[in-house]
Design a protein that fits this description.
The N terminus is likely disordered. This protein is mainly alpha-helical and about 70 residues long. The protein is built from three helices and no strands.
Length: about 70
């Protein structure tokens, strides 16, 4: 269906991922993750990895620790 490359998701796939990250949920549950993966044409693992990296990037931009689990850490 789509030619996967080592460079990561295509622009169209990133658009879908970004939309879901910004408008839907920064922490998708397994069901939502599965739906996003299907919509983007990626595997759940690829989608989860993207969300994890994107969340770390977002946290840094907000001045938060990239791996912090709770507000009190």
């Amino acid at each position: 269906m789509s030619a996967q490359t080592a460079s990561g998701p295509t622009e169209d796939q990133v658009e879908i991922l970004e939309y879901n990250f910004n408008k839907v949920n920064k922490h998708p549950d397994p069901t939502t993750l599965c739906l996003i993966a299907a919509e983007a044409g990626l595997t759940e693992e690829e989608t989860q990895k993207w969300f994890k990296q994107r969340l770390a990037q977002w946290r840094r931009s907000e001045g938060l620790p990239s791996e912090c689990r709770s507000v009190t850490d």
